């Protein structure tokens, strides 16, 4: 259970489904509630597939290119910190994807994979965290628990997107802005943790 909660908490702040709400509402404003819910469900299923694939296969990709996991964690930490700084800035939710991508999404019938699943929900930061969760010391049970954590994250993200209209009316712009700043602070802390843990592993645990 601890592994499930740790996976969920590590990824939730980076995925930030609350940050995806404004873009999701913009892209689905002319759709029926049933179709909007279907798009949210498909996007969350795609997110599970993307994060699970990178969690299971990411280490082999790194080995193929000769990249150490600590190198990835430092690079991922920098990306996560940048995302955290963006969330702390006003209007951060709109900056997660470019206006061109939003405009292109308005012309598409199916927005579940792009831009909703990629890059809104499972962007570079979430992918970096997913790869960073894999270590050679994990047992098969640990890996299953991490995958369950990813599925739990997708379920919560679906609920948030499904009820995004109600949440937006209830929280208002001020509430969403405050939530964005809180999430930004948490994401920033996760990025710092990634970098510090990687540097400690590089300089204090590895031997030539």
From TrEMBL:
GO cellular component annotations of the record: plasma membrane
Keyword Transmembrane helix: yes
Annotated TM spans: 46-65, 116-134, 140-161, 182-204
Keyword annotations of the record: Cell membrane, Membrane, Transmembrane, Transmembrane helix
Subcellular location: Cell membrane
Major location category of this protein: membrane
Annotated Pfam families: MarC
Membrane topology reported for the UniProt record: Multi-pass membrane protein
Superkingdom of the organism of origin: Bacteria
Family according to the record: Belongs to the UPF0056 (MarC) family.
Full protein name: UPF0056 membrane protein
């Amino acid at each position: 259970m601890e592994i499930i909660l740790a996976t969920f908490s590590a990824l939730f702040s980076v995925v930030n489904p609350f940050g995806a709400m404004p873009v999701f509402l913009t892209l689905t404003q002319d759709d029926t509630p049933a179709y909007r819910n279907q798009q949210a469900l498909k996007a969350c299923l795609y997110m599970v597939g993307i994060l699970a694939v990178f969690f299971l296969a990411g280490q082999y990709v790194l080995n193929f290119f000769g990249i150490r996991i600590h190198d990835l964690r430092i690079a991922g930490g920098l990306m996560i910190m940048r995302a955290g700084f963006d969330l702390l800035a006003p209007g951060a939710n709109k900056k997660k994807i470019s206006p061109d991508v939003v405009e292109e999404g308005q012309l598409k019938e199916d927005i579940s994979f792009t831009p909703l699943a990629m890059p809104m929900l499972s962007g570079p930061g979430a992918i970096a965290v997913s790869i960073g969760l894999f270590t050679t010391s994990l047992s098969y049970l640990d890996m299953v628990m991490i995958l369950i954590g990813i599925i739990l994250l997708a379920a919560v993200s679906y609920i948030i997107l499904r009820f995004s209209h109600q949440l937006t009316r209830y929280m208002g712009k001020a509430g969403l802005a405050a939530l964005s700043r809180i999430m930004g602070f948490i994401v920033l802390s996760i990025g710092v943790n990634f970098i510090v843990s990687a540097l400690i592993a590089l300089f204090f645990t590895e031997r030539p």
